[in-house]
Amino acid sequence: MSLSALGIDPANLASQYTQIERASKDQLLNNKNSDFTNRIKAFDGLKSNLTSFYTDLKAGLKTETSLFSNSATLSDEGSLSVTASGKATSGDYDVFVEQLAQAHQVALSFDPTKTLSTDGEFNIDLAGDSFSVDLSTLGADAKLSDLASAINSHADNSGVKATLMRSGSETFLVMTSEESGAANQVSLNFTAGADANGADITNAIATKTELTAAQDSIIKLGASSALTITSTTNKLEDVIEGVTLNLTKVQALGDSPIHVTVSQDQESSKANVKSFVDAFNSLVNGITSNDNLKRDNMASGLARSLRNDFQGTFEGKTLYSVGIEFDRSGNLTINNERLEAAMTNDPEALTKMLQGETGLMSKLEKRVEPYTKSYGLMTDKKNTLQSSLDIVVRQQKSHNTSMEQVYQRYLSQFTQMQQTIAQLESTMGQFGS
């Protein structure tokens, strides 16, 4: 039986032999590529988790927020609403709403058929801060609406809003203080120029209508020997620490004071602490359960440091004593009985332990912060891994180039073999004939 050149496929044989020769190094480089790619992906995820955790910590450390919630109830909700932050102290208060704060508002009447003065200085004073609009700068055929726009856009306007209102044959230029309170009084004056129409503005100011008087809010605090409190707004945040009073309606003379009760909301407080615990566990378990992170010295070291930050004392007490502890598997847990006792017995101390300047959350914030910076530890780590991946990619490209040369060599050899066999078959055929 003769060997036939037709049974040889040079390209297929070259491909098979090349694949055999390159297989081991392909596997090695592919494994390295996959390893570095997965590690980069893992650190991207870790940085995202750290940034989210850090953002929550910073929000929790703001003075106006707290893990521990209070609730506030009213005996009558007709004249005010109330909210209590975690800083509020449980207690009972009596409030009588005597007056609401108002923003000063005046209206100047104009005849819309008359032309606006082409010159003169329109002066506006708000609580001692004044500015002037030069009517000559408004342009030819300026209208009252142009004056209103010039007032609103003036660089020195400290808080006066000008609007137009129309009623029948009158157009009103309405001037309103953006801030309420007795001190925020709007005063108007006009210095006429050569244009006789300036008299219309002078007359409008002289006959202006006060739509709303500038006044402070006034409340009486206490059922007897009441303390009088005034404010420029109807939102009182500093009268009772941690409590915000929103005044909505004046009470009638002879009405009973509104009784405000501030008390601890333990269910919301426990839910807030649980959210913090869950976020911590999610962050740490995200490291310890990921093979690409738990084998890394930096990531595993961070996980240990975060857990170690719970050790020691805060405000002279351990976190275990207030119900925050680690279980046998290393997860942070809450002992509700001890936590509830701490919230009831000394909520202020508990707040300082967790959210004070030297508290747990501040400690964790300092621990996490270097890993969240744009050019911080995580970025350095990722850059190192990316550099290693880039080297592997270059090695793969070089290997592919080298294996292409090997393929061409095999292809040349098997093509030559095919040609040689074809020549032999041709020669043998001649002898046979």
TrEMBL record:
Q: Where is the Flagellar hook-associated protein 2 N-terminal domain?
A: 7-104
The alphabetical list of record keywords is: Bacterial flagellum, Cell projection, Cilium, Coiled coil, Flagellum, Secreted
| Location(s) in or outside the cell | Secreted; Bacterial flagellum
What InterPro entries does this protein map onto?
Flagellin_hook_IN_motif (IPR010810), FliD (IPR040026), FliD_C (IPR010809), FliD_N (IPR003481)
* Highest taxon above the source species: Bacteria
Q: Which Pfam families match?
A: Flagellin_IN, FliD_C, FliD_N
Domain (Flagellar hook-associated protein 2 C-terminal) spans 214-425
Q: Which family does it belong to?
A: Belongs to the FliD family.
Q: How does it assemble?
A: Homopentamer.
Q: What does this protein do?
A: Required for morphogenesis and for the elongation of the flagellar filament by facilitating polymerization of the flagellin monomers at the tip of growing filament. Forms a capping structure, which prevents flagellin subunits (transported through the central channel of the flagellum) from leaking out without polymerization at the distal end.
| Official protein name in the record | Flagellar hook-associated protein 2
The taxonomic lineage of its organism, from the top, reads:
Bacteria, Pseudomonadati, Pseudomonadota, Gammaproteobacteria, Alteromonadales
